[in-house]
Structure formats: structure tokens, C-alpha cells
Write a structure and sequence with these properties.
Elements lengths: L19 E3 L11 H9 L3 H14 L10 H10 L5 H12 L8 E3 L1 H12 L1 E4 L2 E5 L6 E6 L4 H4 L7 E5 L2 E2 L5 H8 L6 E8 L2 E9 L1 E4 L3 E8 L2 E8 L6 H13 L5 E5 L8 H11 L4 E7 L4 E5 L10 E5 L6 H11 L4 E4 L7 E7 L5 E10 L15 E2 L4 H7 L11 H17 L14
Parallel strand pairs: 1-18, 12-13, 13-16, 16-17, 17-20
Antiparallel strand pairs: 2-19, 3-10, 4-5, 6-7, 6-8, 8-9, 11-12, 14-15, 14-19, 18-19
Helix pairs in contact: 2-3, 2-4, 8-9, 9-10
Length: 439
């Protein structure tokens, strides 16, 4: 599920396929008890309760429901009266607990909207990332998103936001400010900004649909090697097209090889991971899935790869689900060398359903296996070159500016591996000029 307004913390790392499956309220279910029960459900919180039960009953990967009496659970749920939707929501969450699957969970409307924005990789707004300056405690622009209304209007990183539509931001949280800034596409919002040498000026911006960047790339000069460094935050609906642009732009700069950084990537959409794998692979199996009935589906490379240059992939314990599909496919097909720490170990697939009242449900529908066929669930993928970080190093690299620098041991190891592969590819035994490793 890799956005942007910040995702709710628990959403990170748990979504594998976030394709939004829209389900009309009770359109395909046959409620127990006939028409009288059906009519009674339509206008009560029990409607949502039974929608959830029916979806889990039909789709959940384990047909024993972890040996829970799922039919009995439905009867208990429908025998209760709910005074509010919140009470029904709590009952749903409690009913799902015995299944023992942290990835099958109910989402209230706010959580579902956050998840939808996250997986779609877009939102309506003006295109700025917000933060609170630790020294001044003032609301600050962290960065404008490229080609967004804010970017085009000249809003700069470091600008202080004094007011939003005339409302002072003094003491305002990032979440509160984001709620004021977001709105319908085509409507206007006015920010009062200040920056060094210029205080208290207004910028009026028109809200638009913003594509959120999940792929970040740069050309790196490592000794005599030109390296394409690409980091992928998560597998959103726009990740594949952004990855394609990154590879094409870096290839045009005559890079010798690539480092693909999946560290901290919690996953995202199934089809996004498959499409990105196909950009690096000419042939071979990418992943296999198995559903509740034992039905198998295999996804393979089926077109010409965008590049055949040497590739090293960086992973860590927070590289999960779709990240593990990509890393596993590249490793098992010997397309890339994996460097870093053992991955998270999430090898199940979820479908996400929109419910009739704007809430949602994520339900585990299948298990997946890398080309090797090894079950990596709760085990993760072991890197080809294992290099664990100390706590101090992890804390340092939590700040993006230190990643892919001489302060990043895993990146330095990736460059060492890549150097060897590039030289072997070019038939050179020793580099003409050693790559600087830093201190």
C-alpha cells in the first residue's frame, strides 16, 4: 500500500493489493432469514455488519476462518441492536479478531478515504508537503510537489504559512492545516506566506488533482561509474509509470548500472509490483498466487525489459508485500543482487472493498509465492549480501538526506557489488580509479 497527506500509521505495511473492489450494498448476498431480514437490514447499522460478514464469508482465504464458527458469528451480530454506526463498527472489529489475521480489517470512512488516496497515489489539493519547524514551531512548507499549483505559483520549501484563507495557523497541527487546504478541484485557497526577505504576502491557488510522487531518482557519480539510483516509496497506481520515466531518463544519461532502493517500502498494489518487475525482466516467473480453493495464478515477464544493465536492490525489515514480490522475482531469476537485511515477510494478498456507507473492508483473499516456491510468510526474503544496520545507523538513515551517501553502509555495499558486476560486464578486471568509499 506504499501518498501527500500522511497515511494513518497502521496502514503502512499491511496493504498488499489495494485494488478498490466496489460492492453495491447487499447486491450479491442472500441474507439468511429471507426478505424480512433483508428489509430490516437496509436502513439500519446492521446493513454494514452484514455486508462485512458476507464479503469475508465469500472471499476469505481460509475457508475454516481459523476454525471460528463464522455462521454462528453472523447470527450473533444480527441478533444485536446497534444504536449507532460507531457501535456497529466496533462489533465488526471484534467479530474479525478471532480470525487472527491482522490484514483482514474494517476501515471507517476516514481510514478508507486515507487508504484510497494512498493507493491511488493522488489527491485533490495544491501540492505541498507540510511540517512544523522544530525551532520556530510554525507551520512550514517542506516541499512543493513538482508541477503542482503550489510549485507553479512559486511556493518554496521553507516558506512559513501564516494563515489559510485568513485563518491564523498559530498552534495549528499539520493535520488541521491539511484539512483546510484540501477541497474540491477547481476551488481556490489563499495562503499567507513569509520567507527570508519577504513577510506577509498572499498566494491564491486553485486546487487540482495532484499525482503524488512515489518514485525518486538521481544520477550518481561513483568513481568512474555513472549510477542510476532509484528509490520507491510504495506501489501506488502511478508507481509503474513513474518508474518507467525514471529508467528512461537515467538510461539516456548513459548510466552503467542501477541501485533500486526498496528499504522502508511497505508494499501496495499487486499489479503495480508485477508491471515494475516486467520493466527489469525479459522473461521468467514473477509471482504465483493461491486462493482459498487452491486455485493458482501465475504472473510472468511478457515483454521486453526497459534495461538489461546490472541491478542491485536494497531491502530491509520494513520492505514488505509488493516489495517482497519484486525483490523475490529479481532475486530468483538472477536479475539482481539483493543487499541489506531480511525483509518483513508478508506473503498474503488483500482485496479492498468499498461499503455502502463510505467505510471499507480489507480482506485476505490469497497467498503468494516467489518463483522459488518458498513460503516467505512471517519469514521474509534473505538478501544475497546481508548487512544489518546498528540502531544508530537506522536512526541516522531515517532522515532521507543521509540515504545513498557515504553515511549509508548498505548503499556503499550495493555500490561495491555493482562495481564488480559492471566491470565484469565490460571485461575489466580492476577499476582504473577506485571508487571512494568514504570513512
Amino acid at each position: 500500500m506504499n501518498q501527500y497527506p500522511k497515511p494513518l500509521p497502521w496502514l503502512k505495511g499491511i496493504l498488499f493489493t489495494g485494488a478498490i473492489a466496489t460492492t453495491a450494498a447487499l447486491s450479491w448476498l442472500a441474507p439468511m432469514g429471507g426478505r424480512a431480514v433483508f428489509a430490516a437490514l437496509q436502513d439500519s447499522p446492521k446493513n454494514i455488519v452484514d455486508e462485512v460478514w458476507q464479503i469475508v464469508n465469500k472471499e476469505y482465504v481460509d475457508h475454516t476462518f481459523n476454525h471460528v464458527d463464522w455462521q454462528g458469528t453472523r447470527q450473533q451480530l444480527l441478533n444485536r441492536n446497534y444504536s449507532s454506526k460507531e457501535e456497529a463498527y466496533n462489533a465488526i472489529r471484534k467479530a474479525l479478531e478471532p480470525i487472527g489475521d491482522p490484514y483482514t480489517r474494517f476501515l471507517d470512512p476516514e481510514q478508507f478515504q486515507a487508504l484510497t488516496s494512498q493507493t491511488q497515489g493522488e489527491l485533490s489539493g495544491i501540492g505541498i508537503r507540510l511540517g512544523v519547524n522544530e525551532q520556530t514551531k510554525k507551520l512550514t512548507v517542506v516541499e512543493p510537489i513538482e508541477n503542482s499549483p503550489a510549485f507553479e505559483a512559486g511556493v518554496k520549501a521553507g516558506d512559513t504559512i501564516l494563515a489559510i484563507d485568513g485563518k491564523s495557523t498559530q498552534g495549528m497541527t499539520v493535520e488541521e492545516a491539511s484539512a483546510l487546504i484540501r477541497g474540491e478541484i477547481g476551488t481556490d485557497v489563499t495562503l499567507q506566506l513569509s520567507r527570508t526577505g519577504r513577510n506577509g504576502f498572499d498566494v491564491m491557488l486553485t486546487r487540482a488533482q495532484i499525482e503524488l510522487p512515489t518514485v525518486h531518482y538521481t544520477l550518481k557519480e561513483e568513481g568512474q561509474m555513472r549510477i542510476g539510483y532509484i528509490s520507491l516509496d510504495e506501489f501506488s497506481s502511478h508507481a509503474a509509470e513513474q518508474m518507467k520515466r525514471a529508467i528512461e531518463n537515467l538510461d539516456a544519461k548513459n548510466v552503467k548500472g542501477y541501485v533500486l532502493d526498496l528499504r522502508g517500502n511497505p508494499g501496495g498494489l499487486l499489479y503495480s509490483s508485477i508491471e515494475i518487475a516486467r520493466m527489469w525482466m525479459e522473461d521468467g516467473v514473477i509471482v504465483r498466487t493461491v486462493d482459498r480453493k487452491g486455485g493458482k495464478q501465475e504472473f510472468s515477464a511478457n515483454k521486453q525489459a526497459l534495461t538489461q544493465l546490472p541491478l542491485v536492490v536494497l531491502v530491509d525489515g520494513n520492505s514488505a508485500s509488493a516489495s517482497e514480490i519484486l525483490a523475490g522475482a529479481l532475486k530468483d531469476n538472477k536479475r539482481a543482487t539483493i543487499v541489506g537485511s531480511r525483509t518483513f515477510g508478508k506473503a498474503v494478498v488483500q482485496s479492498v472493498h468499498s461499503l455502502s456507507d463510505g467505510s471499507g473492508l480489507a480482506v485476505t483473499i490469497s497467498r503468494y509465492y516467489p518463483p522459488s516456491g518458498i513460503d516467505i510468510n512471517h519469514k521474509g526474503i534473505a538478501p544475497d549480501v546481508n548487512l544489518d544496520l546498528t540502531r544508530e545507523q537506522r536512526q541516522l538513515l531515517a532522515e532521507p538526506e543521509w540515504r545513498a551517501t557515504v553515511q549509508d553502509p548498505q548503499y556503499k555495499q550495493a555500490i561495491t557489488v555493482l562495481e564488480t558486476q559492471v566491470l565484469a560486464r565490460e571485461g575489466v578486471r580492476q577499476p582504473l580509479k577506485p571508487i571512494s568509499r568514504g570513512n
